[in-house]
Amino acid sequence: MENDKKYDEIKEQVKILNEKFNSAVSEEDWQDWNTQMNKVGKLIEDYGRTSYNRTKKINNILGIK
C-alpha cells in the first residue's frame, strides 16, 4: 500500500513537472522547473529503494517502454 501511495505521488509530480516544462519562458520558470525535476528525481530514488521491480516501475512512471 505504501508503494502505491508513493507511485501515485510520483505520477502527480511528473504531471506538474510536464506542465512547468511546457509553460516555462523565463529564467525563473526554468529554475522552478529544475526544482520540480529535483523533487521528482528524489521521489523516484526513494521509491526505487522500496520497490521490488524498481527499474520496470521507474520506466513506467517516465513513460519508457
Given the helix and strand composition, which structural class is it?
mainly alpha
Shape call: elongated
Counting copies of identical and different chains, the oligomeric state is single chain
Give the DSSP E fraction (strand runs of 2 or more residues).
under 5%
| Number of discrete helical segments | 3
Distance between the termini: 24 Å
Report on this structure.
The chain has one domain. Helix 1 runs antiparallel to helix 2 (27-50). It has helices at 2-23, 27-50, 54-62. The mean pLDDT is 84. It has 65 residues and is an all-alpha fold. Helices cover 85% and strands 0% of the residues.
Features:
3 helices, single chain, mainly alpha, 65 residues
Summarize the structure.
The protein is mainly α. Helices cover 85% and strands 0% of the residues.
Which secondary structure elements does this structure contain, and how are they paired or packed?
Elements: H1 2-23, H2 27-50, H3 54-62
Helix pairs in contact: 1-2, 2-3
